[in-house]
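S.,

As promised, the nicotinamide-adenine-dinucleotide run. Input:
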Amino acid sequence: MSSLPSIATVIGSGTMGPGIAATLARAGATVRLYDISEDAIARAEAAYGVVQGVLAAVDSPSAPGGSVSFGTDLDAALEGTELIIEAVPEKLELKQKVFADLEARIGDEVIIATNTSGIPITTMAESLRVPGRLIGMHWSNPPHLIPMIEIIPGQATDEALVGQLVDIVKAFNYVPVLEKEIPGFVENRVLYAILRECMALLEEGIVTPEGLDACVKWGIGYKLSVIGPTRLLDMAGLDIYQAVSSYLNKDLDVSTDTPQFIKDKIAEGKLGFKSNGGMYEYGEGDVDAKRKEIVTGLIAARKTLSSIPNV
Ligand SMILES: NC(=O)c1ccc[n+]([C@@H]2O[C@H](COP(=O)([O-])OP(=O)(O)OC[C@H]3O[C@@H](n4cnc5c(N)ncnc54)[C@H](O)[C@@H]3O)[C@@H](O)[C@H]2O)c1
Ligand SMILES: Cc1ncc(C=O)c(C(=O)O)c1O
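Predicted complex:
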């Protein structure tokens, strides 16, 4: 646990920030969770107890002394910090403004890790006073349950920082995946390739949302959670992959924009759980019930996956 910073700051307390903060705190760090929004901080404080229960349920690494404090005072959040994890909305200009606010308050030695879903680190670092301190640290949602983090150095990232972040991630028992920089990084390139095809199949009426979810959960998700795509090819046979990909790849969706039916839903204010409707509709209490089912399922699956060999 010695690689873990004593004090860390998480900037942005929306979907990702609280789980990130809680994971580091349980491993022993003093964590300050900062947001510009009092409401977001209040929601994070309310959710913290639940997240702590989830971390205990999956036996997440725990060390004494860790804590999370919550606040909207940036100077207080940055006092003595060694590692800043930025988790504000996915907008380059906003992130660059946040970095400028941070750099006006911190010493050159402080690391800034960005949880961007895929904006190139090199582009983000262009505006920094100390570009070498910026590195991609992409957590997957929910961050306190998915024990894998992509680490993405940009062209300017200090070489020593890469190993340092790998050690930090290992210190709280997550799997670090070191990658070369590419838009979307690896996880979201794969996820968005799947989602593009899924949305095309729905738009063309080939399958219902319920049918799609069942097919992908059992036919793809279940299998890939155990064996990974590279090993899957060995199990299926490379000759089979060649036979199928030779006619199928040319038929797969190649659209370059968001599907129109998704844009229409967004225009109607249908954003998913956060608006009680999106791909599915949710009545009173349904979203809370679904959230609980998802967390319960992820806890059970993580326990099982942790107890079987990596094949
Ligand atoms: N949601 C996901 O599934 C997911 C998964 C992995 C990575 N990410 C990435 O993590 C980042 C955060 O995503 P999210 O889903 O948590 O976003 P979110 O919109 O849920 O939360 C962002 C928070 O940042 C706060 N914020 C806005 N401007 C700020 C500022 N100047 N200073 C401090 N706080 C500010 C907002 O008040 C909000 O609470 C994004 O880059 C996103 O792409 C998201
Ligand atoms: C739809 C979607 N987009 C981005 C991300 C992460 O960057 C996730 C995720 O982590 O689950 C996601 O589901």
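The chain has a mean pLDDT of 96. DSSP finds eleven helices and eight strands in the chain.

- D.
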